[in-house]
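Run NAD/NADP-dependent betaine aldehyde dehydrogenase through structure prediction, thanks.
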Amino acid sequence: MSLSEEQNVSTVRRPHIEPGRLFIDGEWREADAKGRRDVIDPSTGKVLTTVAEADDSDLDAAVAAARKAFDESGWAQLPGRERARILNRAGDIIRRRADELVATESANVGKPVSLCRAVDVATAAEEYEYCAALAQTVEGSTRQIPIPSHAYTRREPLGVVGAITPFNFPLILSSSKIAPALAAGNTVVHKPAEETPLSALLMAEILTEAGVPNGVLNVVTGSGSVVGEALLRHPGIDKVAFTGSTKIGRHAAAIAGEALKPVTMELGGNAAHIVFEDADLEKAIGAAIKGFVFNTGQFCMGGPRLLVHSSLYDAVVGALSGAVPGVPVGDPFDPATVVGPMAGERHLAKVEEYVRIAKEDGGRIVAGGERLDLGGGYYFQPTVIADLGNDSRAVQEEIFGPVLTVQSFDTEDEAVAMANSTPYGLASGLQTKDVARAHRVAARLQAGIVWVNDWAMLDPAIPFGGVKQSGFGREYGPEALEAYTKVKSVVISLA
Ligand code: NAP
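Sure, done. The structure for NAD/NADP-dependent betaine aldehyde dehydrogenase is below.
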């Protein structure tokens, strides 16, 4: 994925979006209590549409439908090759309906259309196609044991998967759960984020068109504190796949732990991006800017902490203060926009608060630092803050906005120690021309993924996930399939 990728987005128009309903057992329904919730367009702050606001009884119905589909629809027993055909069709339909998906996701999240097409929609299609291939690899193996027997393992689906996703990459993060879960023969109940639920509803339509049987995918829109909580506690859910903040993830893992349910936890991040003294400076500055403005900084794997060798510190701060004000911020539907609005008022307020803390802690604002008034919407200037101490909360905590802190170091050991000094461990990266250093430092960084000489190189073939407070379990890659299957051993006596 690349911010500079040429993409034709000239055909994407701001959409009119019909009110959304729940998708349960292959049918569109209103919530039992007839509740509805406004969905806001972050580029204007105005209501974009409404969706059904589910509660416990709707969740019960979705879990019952998913259970029935698991037990009776034949989905779990389909040969992997048949499930693969359906998942490949989903990939094709995502590509065919790309304009509609881009328009919906951009309007709901505030993503620039160019980014949304090149990254969100493309990655979702690729994930379904990658998982179609994985569906054909769900297999066991024979084992030799010293008694007369035929011993083998079977890899079986887990049952009903409860998927909970965050606001920032709705399409990608629902695909990273639903595609491997379906590939392995599970059924799914998906609760998208309450602010950004619209692409999940479109995906229910797309997967149905692709041939996914009724009840195999159910989408229940509603709040985390009601529907999310009910999903975590529901005895009919066999596995929880959660992406979100470390705070809510800890709560979710505790509930799942009490019920001994397997979980995948993709949680917060606060990556360090190290620029060594031998780095290609132009490339490093380009990667640093991409790392913190990508998705308006609402990127768990963004690079909000730039650690620069002291010999380059002034040059890098100077280059960033020159380049960052030129990054195009504005209407997500303008193809030239690189940074759109933040997804909601609460996210913008959080960023403002961290910039205030940074100033209080002695940080020097060298670019941005303010809310942007573009006639409505939740815009914040891409912001660079130099000279902060490593213990400032603006360094240690996840800001989750278009804010970069820049600090200096003198030695490789110091850089690694600073990089590893936060509670998080999702992504990390370094800029160097020294191959030995690249391998040496990559091995020492506490992170699920390390990038060298670029940022945000992600692909459905590459597993990602966290260590420390960034969670556990992996999405993407063949590893994802393991998270949605269980191994059964069968030993048949030949005596
Ligand atoms: P969040 O507040 O933790 O919400 C995540 C999801 O959990 C939402 O669907 C939310 O529903 C739901 N939820 C809230 N309270 C719940 C409860 N009591 N029980 C069950 N579910 C509940 O996170 P966010 O603000 O949407 O997303 C940003 C965070 O996600 C950041 O920390 C970011 O780093 C992390 N993230 C991690 C990854 C990764 O791969 N590791 C990827 C993307 C984002 P509502 O929306 O209705 O509140």
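The chain has two domains: 3-267+470-490, 272-459.
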